[in-house]
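Q: Here's a chain of 203 amino acids. Please give me its 3D structure as tokens.
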Amino acid sequence: METGKYFESNHKKLQSIPDVDHQWAVAIDKCRDHVRFRLKKRTLYGAHTNERLGMNPLDYYLCYAYDAILSGNWEWKNKYSLSEQMVVIVESTLSTEVEKTKTTKAIQNKTVSGDDDDLFYKMEDVSTEVDMAHEILFETQVSVIEEEIKGDGDLEILWDCVKEGMKRADIAEFMEKTPKQFDKLRERFIMKIKNSSFFEFEQ
């Protein structure tokens, strides 16, 4: 196994943990639950399929997070527990794989000829163009939200739960937050979005 630049610092942290094997087991279980939730209904097509990743998606992301810490390719930051750091790695890796897929699609789209483009636009009717405009606007809003909360692990998880249609109590339980902690997190999320220049909120 090749070692990364954080190998020594990560292993010092691991060595300082009492009953490290138990802590690994707890962290892996929590990370596995998180990956299962994040991949729900998303492994049939797109970035997270078995075919694209070359193995079971759950195992792929779980093993990646485990190896990233053990090899030192990712820094285990002091502000995170072992399980939290694994989840952070998983979140980043999920996003990276989605971006890779988008890049591949963009390259493929550039190979379409002008004649094919003309044919495509002739086949589109007005109602479809309106639907497409609405879809683009919605996707833009989602992209803006995700850009605003990028790097904030709690807000990213909260947003993913919202997109999955989870209720307040279920999200709080999943994130291991008290109702009061969840409300504060929700307030922080709303303030992040309000501060975005894309959205114009009346004062």
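Q: Can you summarize the key feature?
A: The chain has two domains: 1-111, 112-203.
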